[in-house]
Amino acid sequence: MGKPRLVLHAGLHKTGTTALQKAFASNRGRLRKNDIVYPDLPPFGRDPVEAHHKFAHAIARPRGFDTAAFQDRLAKVPETRTVLLSAEAICRHHDGEPRHPNRGGGYWTAAGDPDTYWTGRRAYLERLRYALSRFEIEPVIYLRRQDRVAQSLYFSFVDSLGYVDDFETFLEERIHWFDFDRQVSLFREVFGQATTFDYDSHVKTGLANTFLAEVFGVNGLDISAPRARVTTDPRTVLWIRERNREAGTGINDWRKTVQGFTQWMNQKSPFAGSPASGYWPSQAARDAFLARYGITANDPVAPPAVLSPEDRSRITALFDEWQSAKSPH
User: Fold this and answer.
1) Among the listed residues 108, 24, 107, 104, the one whose alpha carbon sits nearest the alpha carbon of residue 59
2) What does pTM read for this prediction?
3) For residues 16 and 91, is the Cβ–Cβ distance under 8 A?
């Protein structure tokens, strides 16, 4: 008899992973009726979790997570059922990466010798394969064009991780990560297989339902995968980046504050009527970035965002309004 099946939804980042995880987590009972187990309770914590990030992190750096207990929990899943794990961190973790203050923490910076980076990526995936060795592992990876992922990821680094540098520096520090062909090839080398899907195509047909149909042959559950986040105007992101630089040693407290402000700003939509802008300094810069991965794009690039003095004052006033509204009187 072969090993039981485990589907490893490994990302990529910025391909609807949070929306999928919310859909899976809120429909665990319906998934079980179709012999799909999406693990929930301890050793992740007291409350059900939406994603399996702690497990993915523990493979790279086992702190505060009982990997053995989690393996024991998975071992109790009947062989007639398929385990589904989801953590986009699987697509970024690698061994031997130093931490860089105000540069997005550990595990991300890919600057330097590419051989070192890819060796570390392989080591991480091999440890993951060993941790799940009782299963037949089937990695599933969503792909999206690199320039779109890069812009969305840059916002997350500035907003959530206190990143302080410009977009071009961000790209150069992580340039190896965007070689998606090599990322997928590495999964196939380590696990013997990997299925890839086009994110934009699945969004059009319904992300969660299409995932279940393609991966498990399950149709008709009609579970939702709502849009998890609203895109933040790049001028707000530039304002946050300035404040990240000013925060200094208080960056951790500031990070907790600014995420709430960003969500509030998205609801207010102060720049809704403004022309689109982005982070690429020019069309040529975007095209050169994509050319590194053998991609040619014909769509125009939005003009680079500029934080004018008027914009800076406007966002600062809105920040003060938000702080005042949430403070007890």
Assistant:
1) 107
2) 0.90
3) no
